[in-house]
Amino acid sequence: MSGVLAAENLVFRYEGRGPLVLEGVGLRVQKGTCLALLGASGSGKSTLLLHLNGTLKPEAGQVYLNEVPVGYGWRALKQWRQRVGLVLQDPDDQVACPLVYQDVAFGPQNLGLAEAEVQRRVATSLDWVGIGHLSDRGVHQLSFGEKKRVALAGVLAMGPEVLLLDEPTAGLDPRATRQLMHTLAARKAGGTALVMATHDVDLAFAWADEVVVLCRGRARCQGESRTILADAALMEEAGLRPPWLVEVAVEARRRGWLEEGRALPGTLAALMAQLGECLRCGEPDHPAPTHDNRGGR
Q1: Mean pLDDT of the 209-214 span
Q2: pTM, rounded to two decimals
Q3: Contact by Cβ (8 Å): 204, 225
């Protein structure tokens, strides 16, 4: 399969028995793109991520890096995890060293890099995530959001080609979420491919180039985010709802406030611009909205 990272027909069940968690799952990740794995709880998102960096081995199927099948020997896994980094949902499962610097330096040191290069990578990664001032801080003194950024910095310090993120905004306030997305956008601009497992359809709509929708262990489809997430029937099947921006735009189109056949807007600003264009045109097909006097204006 094409792409910097790809999976084909993955089959997996925990401990080799019980129900299938992944049932013939496939996907492809292109260089410098953002891919969201979407699905309800229990759909297999986190399990799939753990296959994409070699933490789990499938019963059947294959993972590819640059179209080459990966191996599961010690040396192959070391190279794989250097190229494909994973940031877990709970930073306490990933951040282990007592000091921030030590934790971020752990991976580069294990690569056998010179100390000067380790220091450079640690400083750069901490600056990328906005916590360079916390380099000498004890991990136990950090907030949950700060620990998440330490975990991300530790993975970025390895220089991965692909960054896997499991529910990265879970537990973050809006400001921390914006900071995280700014960091990820910068990594994408630098050529890193990003894969995010989430059930937040609004985040996926705003952030992802493509989405993979998982439904009961199967990859229902992969495609352009604005097309897939506007499919109300598919969202219902997957136990999700369409993004709020899509719901508003579809309702506005039904009322004649948006032009039929025009692509749905991808941002609130684009939606308001389209509404403004249609309401200014003064055509009968685009009547101005009326107010419900029961609740005031």
Answers
A1: 94
A2: 0.87
A3: yes
